[in-house]
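Batch job 17 of 40 flagged for manual review because the log was empty.
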Amino acid sequence: MSNNETLTTDTSNELVTEHLYMVQQVVNQLASRYPRHVDRSELWSAGAYGLVDASRRFDPNAGIPFPRYAAIRIRGAIIDSTRTRDWATRRLRRDIRTVRETRDGFEVREGRAPTETELADLLHISIDELRTHRAAAANATLLHLDHPLPGTDSSETGLAARLEEHDRERLPEDAVEHSELVGTVRSAVSFLPEPQRQVVERYYFRGELLRDIADSLGVTEARASQIRSEALDAMRAYFGAAFEGVMPVPAKAPGIRRRAAYVEQFSAETTWRTRFDADGQEVDANVG
C-alpha cells in the first residue's frame, strides 16, 4: 500500500470517528416515519455504513462541507436499507400514518375513539375507502392475528379475538416507545447546565412552586421563570431537530449559542440505548 493510500485511509477513519454522532441524529430524524417494528439499531447500522461510504467517497475539492455530504449519504443509506426490507409502499405507509394521526387527534379532542363515519368524514373519504385502508394496513403488519386458532373455522374466534390488549405496560412495542421517550426527556434534562437543570427538575418533576425555587436560588421569581424558559428552549431545539411535529424555537429567542452547544453535546454524548436506559431513573434527591 502506498503512502498516499495509507493517508487516505487514515483520513477516512478520522472523518468517521469525528462524525459518528451524526448517525444517531439522522436516525432520530427518520425513526418516527417508520412503523414500530423497524429495529432502530438496524437503522443506526445502515446509517453507519452510509457514513463510512461517505468518508471514502468525499472529495474535499468539491466545495461541500463533509457534514452536509455525510448527512445526505447517511440518510440515503437508511432509506435504501428499509426499502429493501419493507413490503409496504411509501403511499401505504403515508396513508396508515394519516389515519392514525387523525384518529389520535379526535381522541384527544373528544375523549373517545371516533366511529367509522366520523373518521371517514375527517379524512374526506368514504367508509369503503377507510375500510380498504385498514385492510391494507392489516396486510402490512408482521403478525396476521386473524388466523383461526386450531380447532376453529371462524375468524371471530381467531387470535385477535383472544389477545387484543390495550394496557401499555403489556404491549411491548408501546412500552419500549414510551420508555425511550421518557428516557430521552430525562437525559435531556440531565444535560442542561446549572441552574437550568435544577429549575426544570424541581418545577416539573417535583411540583415545587416557582417562587420557592427562586428563593432557594437567591433570584427573583421573574429570573427563575426566565431560566425555565431558556431550559425549555434548549430542549425544544434538540427535539425539534430529532423529531417531527415539534414547535421550533423562536428565531429571536435569547441564548442561540448556548442552545447550539447544548444540542451538539447532547447528541454527541448520548445514544438511543443510554436514553432508553434513563427511563425509570430517579432524579437527584439532593437538588437545591
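Reviewer: the log was empty due to a logging misconfiguration, but the result itself is present. The radius of gyration is 24 Å. Unflagging and moving on to job 18.
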